[in-house]
Amino acid sequence: MEQGYPLRGKIEVDAGGKDAASTVLIQTGRNATSIPARGEVWVDQRMLRRLDMSVGDEVTIGALHFKVAARIVKDIDQSFGFASFAPRVLMNDADLAATGLLQEGSRIFS
Description:
With 110 residues, the protein is of the alpha+beta class. The chain contains 2 helices and 6 strands, in the order βββαβββα.
C-alpha cells in the first residue's frame, strides 16, 4: 500500500483494543485514515485463524518480520472471485522489496 490508498472507499480495521501508536486511526471497527507503518501489517481474520495469531503478534513474510498491527474487518478490494479465497495482508509498499517476494510468478498486487 502506498500513501493515499485507497483512492475511493474506506478500509475498516480493528486493532484488538490495543493502541496502535504508529497509525493515525485504528480503533475497533473504524475506518483507517492511514496505511500500515513500516514494519507493520494488517491481516484478515482468515490469516489470523490459520496461523493461530492475534493482533500484536509477529509474523514473518519473506525475509522480514512484521508486527500485526490490525485485523482487516472490511476491505474495499474484497470480491467474491477466485482471489478472495487467499488470506489477505496489507503492508507498506516501502517494505515490499525487502521481503524478497517480488519475483517472477509472484501473486503480489501492489
